[in-house]
Design a protein that fits this description.
single chain, 191 residues, mainly beta, six-stranded antiparallel β-sheet, 16 strands
Length: 191
């Protein structure tokens, strides 16, 4: 297990130059935008516009902060994402246009290379103690707000807002968490 502190997340320009993203984790480490197998990042979207195109990549998006964003995804009906919406999965290699509803938003973005990997993104509202069996070989737990402590076997630690816990060789392992936090669990499997 490895704690990824918010202060260490890497900031970089969007692929299309329209903004900035905060990279939480990427595999392989130090991969460039064209060469990652999977990537977890956050972005602040302050203006309407197109999404970057990533050939061969699947994407899941959830709104972390703000009043929402409407997405026009080629081949689908328009969809409005808000903080209450479930994570939305869609191909990252089709045109997508975003329209903000009322001001800037921050989103969480999970991407995996379609040929070989798949992912799931789920929200966890933590109020007290919880235990979960980790569903995939690679899992990342993002503490979006609040704080939590964790235990897996003999390993323990704590996450504050913006911190993440990367767990490899995780499938079937038990993770105990305790605190008051809004979290997101990313699960990455062989596709």
């Amino acid at each position: 297990m490895r704690i990824l502190r918010a202060s260490d997340h890497k900031r970089m320009p969007w692929k299309n130059g329209g903004g900035e993203t905060v990279e939480i984790a990427v595999s392989p480490e130090e991969a460039v935008l064209a060469g990652f197998d999977w990537r977890v990042s956050m972005a602040t979207v302050a203006t309407d516009g197109p999404f970057s195109i990533f050939p061969g990549i699947d994407r899941t998006l959830v709104i972390l902060d703000g009043n929402g964003m409407a997405l026009d995804i080629e081949g689908r009906a328009p969809v409005l994402l808000t903080m209450a919406s479930d994570p939305l999965a869609f191909p990252a290699d089709v045109p997508v246009a975003a329209r903000l509803q009322d001001g800037a938003i921050t989103d969480l973005n999970v991407m995996t290379r379609r040929q070989g990997l798949a992912h799931r993104l789920s929200r966890i509202e933590l109020d007290g103690s919880s235990s979960m069996l980790l569903p995939a070989p690679t899992c990342l737990l993002l503490c979006h707000s609040g704080a939590l402590s964790f235990r897996r076997g003999d390993e323990t630690g704590a996450l504050a807002a913006g911190d993440a816990l990367l767990i490899e060789n995780a499938a079937g392992a038990e993770l105990e968490i305790d605190g008051d936090a809004k979290c997101y669990l990313v699960s990455i499997t062989a596709g």
